[in-house]
Amino acid sequence: MIIAVDGPSGSGKSSTARGVATRLGLRFLDTGAMYRAVTWSAVEHGLDLDDTAAVAQRARDLRLEISTDPGHQFVIADGTDVTAAIREPRISEVVSKIATNLEVRKELIRRQRAVIDNAQPSGGIVVEGRDIATVVATDAELKVLLTADQEARMARRGAEVGSLTAEQLRDQIIRRDADDSTVSEFQVASDGAVTIDSTYMTLEEVIDAISRLAKE
Ligand code: C5P
Is 2-208 CATH 3.40.50.1820? Predict the structure, then answer.
């Protein structure tokens, strides 16, 4: 069983996908955390982020351990626990640049597919990201595209990164949407995906809806 949950930043896909995995007793993979970990590593190594070859090599060399336990998420990069560090604004601001590096995508997609394969004997996995239904796991049994309008996404993002002002937050969301519109080149519309607009739904309602679809 593979459940793909794709959507833009702040659509609530992380909490939703984690909630669905917990509800259905499945593993959980946050693919955005992998792009963030590569970004963290490239920044820590002082790489020029425009040097695509160097950044791609860093992605290939990185020892990455990512938890698939929905109740206990952590990311360890080259032995360092970066669970919190990869959420810092300095990473969020540049992660889209790393995500448009085709060689980085190739490497991370390979690793994501390995994680997905490993999870099958234990029942399956909920995978969240941008290109899961379209690229990473086109054979997913259930494909969900989660959307929400910009105000709702800002409010959710704000709850996550409490230290930013409303303006900083708006700037960050608008900038990342624009940067990620390049990423969407890699995510051609997926066949058979169910779109859920979560703007006026609670987290529980979205988790209920997806869990019901998964049981159909
Ligand atoms: O989901 P999250 O906001 O943590 O993702 C961070 C960034 O990683 C996104 O803004 C996007 O640029 C990139 N990403 C991607 N493909 C994925 C997951 C994330 O390009 N499957």
Answer: no
